[in-house]
Specification:
The chain has 548 residues and is of the alpha/beta class. The chain contains 20 helices and 13 strands. It starts with 11 loop residues before the first helix and ends with a helix. Bound molecules: 6-O-phosphono-beta-D-fructofuranose. 6-O-phosphono-beta-D-fructofuranose binds next to loops.
């Protein structure tokens, strides 16, 4: 099928939406809620979640036009093209097969990508991950000096860090504690220093996760890990051979094209786990990038996580646009971005274990849809890619909610909560859980309906501020998998309507190149700064003057 994007503005449904908008912008949620059926009509059951869209600036008729837009923009056809292995990541000439990472075992899709049978190869890697994890966790695989692995340190950044760190944070209470996971990403030396604090080098396994095995932050941290390990083992008289120690204590997670680099680093070929070119970094938490999770939480929990994602894939691919909450949420995002001119979108998990979810979603959404040209390389005419941000409730109620309630910006909000706490509660903890959920529910009502008529202006909350409530039963590996897959597909649908490539990320390259250039200037006080702009020059000189 042709990958040529249509201009969404020329679609009949877009014109219809323009008319709907003229009407909708004059309405309020209070008036819309006079329809007693509204919540029922706008609430969707998606896997283990109930997703309530009723506090959004839409009515059920608008969702029908959303469905028309999705169909006219060919979302179903593009979704099929994706799973047929077409190279929908056209700028990089790659298929986009992250949904294959959680395909049922033994499924035969026949899809070949880059010359390999994608599902077969993915599942081989998964089996290797599981058996490696079993051997590490049982103590069959041991570290230099014979100790069992007690901690794994994942060294990676972006997609090679945010997903596993977020998932580990969310599910850490499910771990049997045999192997803890730590994460180091930033090139700031403090990041590494803190990540290994209190760890015994003799029982620490490092996972160097980098698809390119060339990212400067990851390589610098990996070298630092090597230095820390060899020094630590040396101090304990456990170091017979540096080569052997590195081979035992390091695992590589990278694309096979870069396997040579991992081997050069000292990693054994049998300890290298493949990342596939047809899975983007920000879509890779359920790939070998999740090895830190398999090692720390165990294969069974990881398997449940994959099952949750798979359940959502099945829902997404088989549900009509009108009934499909994922498509509706994606169209809502476009509605707010291009009609209401909202620029940001806030993510509010009412669950402390999901602290890292906003960070994770920032990369997923903004690296995917922060694009200024369409699939034909022509500048887009519409706004794309909202700015995602957020924080946990209730903490954020006491920091930025003031602006949500009374500020001048329109900020669609996703409220996420679970009926049951992840822990067994006792005594007053049950009341705490209910208070948490009361806040989750009350805040969406406060945003939607505001204060009563006649309230003094300074105290008045005008209401009419949109939110979506995503309510699950219990946070588990399965439901977390569901939640992540929901957002992955939302991003995809928005990208299709906007006619952009959600799967490349060329924008991050320029800064990387410039930092190399500045690095070579910084390290030499004799550098000729005439070639750089005056601000860069001043910053470098200030650094030279003040470094100790
Ligand atoms: O710089 C952006 C990026 O390429 C992300 O897309 C990616 O997730 C991250 O860097 C890490 O890349 P790698 O896994 O190759 O180290």
């Amino acid at each position: 099928m042709s990958l040529s994007p249509q201009n969404p503005r020329t679609l009949p449904a877009w014109e219809k939406l323009e008319r709907c908008f003229e009407d909708a912008k004059e309405k309020t949620l209070s008036s819309w809620f006079k329809d007693p059926q509204r919540t029922e009509k706008l609430t969707f059951a998606v896997g283990d979640f109930s997703i309530d869209l009723s506090k959004n600036l839409i009515d059920p008729d608008i969702t029908k036009v959303f469905a028309e837009l999705a169909n006219q923009a060919s979302i179903p056809e593009r979704a099929s093209a994706m799973v047929r292995g077409e190279e929908i990541n056209s700028t990089e000439g790659r298929a986009v097969l992250h949904t294959f990472l959680r395909a049922p075992r033994g499924m035969q899709s026949g899809v070949m990508a880059g010359g390999i049978n994608a599902i077969e190869e993915i599942q081989k890697v998964l089996e290797r991950m599981y058996s490696f994890a079993r051997e590490v966790r049982s103590g069959k695989i041991r570290m230099e000096g014979g100790k069992k692995v007690k901690a794994v340190v994942n060294i990676g950044i972006g997609g090679s860090d945010l997903g596993p760190e977020m998932v580990y944070g969310a599910l850490q209470n499910k771990s049997d504690g045999a192997v803890q996971a730590r994460f180091v990403s930033n090139i700031d030396p403090s990041s590494f220093i803190e990540a290994v604090k209190g760890l015994d080098p003799a029982s620490t396994l490092f996972l160097v996760a980098s698809k390119s095995f060339g990212t400067q932050e990851t390589l610098s941290n990996a070298l630092e890990a090597k230095r820390w390990l060899l020094k630590g083992l040396g101090e304990k008289n456990l170091l017979d051979s540096e080569k052997e120690a590195v081979a035992r204590h390091f695992v590589g997670i990278c694309s096979m094209e870069k396997e040579g680099k991992a081997e050069e680093f000292g990693i054994r070929p049998e300890n290298i786990f493949e990342m596939f070119p047809f899975v983007g970094g920000r879509y890779s938490v359920d790939s070998s990038v999740g090895l830190s999770l398999v090692l720390s939480l165990g294969p069974d929990i990881f398997e449940r996580f994959l099952e949750g994602m798979r359940a959502i894939d099945e829902y997404f691919f088989s549900t009509s646009a009108e009934e499909n909450a994922i498509i509706q949420m994606a169209m809502l995002n476009i509605w707010y971005t291009d009609f209401f001119k909202a620029e940001t979108h806030v993510i509010l998990p009412y669950n402390d274990y999901l602290r890292k979810l906003p960070d994770y979603l920032q990369q997923l959404t903004m690296e995917s849809n922060g694009k200024r040209v369409n699939l034909n390389g022509k500048e887009v005419e519409l706004s794309t890619g909202e700015i995602y941000w957020g924080g946990v409730g209730t903490n954020s109620q006491h920091s930025f909610f003031q602006l949500l309630h009374q500020g001048t910006h329109l900020i669609p909000a996703d409220f996420i909560a679970f009926a049951n706490n992840s822990n067994q509660l006792e005594g007053g903890q049950e009341e705490m859980q209910e208070r948490l959920l009361s806040n989750f529910i009350a805040q969406t009502a406060a945003l939607a309906f505001g204060t009563e008529e006649g309230t003094q202006e300074e105290k008045r909350c005008p209401g009419n501020r949109p939110s979506t409530s995503i309510f699950g039963r219990t946070l588990s590996a399965y439901t977390l998998g569901e939640l992540i897959a929901i957002y992955e597909h939302i991003v995809f649908c928005q990208g299709v309507v906007w006619g952009i490539n959600s799967f490349d990320q060329f924008g991050v390259e320029l800064g990387k190149k410039l930092s190399q250039k500045v690095f070579s200037l910084l390290s030499d006080t004799e550098s000729n700064l005439a070639q750089v702009d005056s601000s860069t020059r001043r910053l470098i000189e200030w650094y030279w003057e003040h470094r100790s």
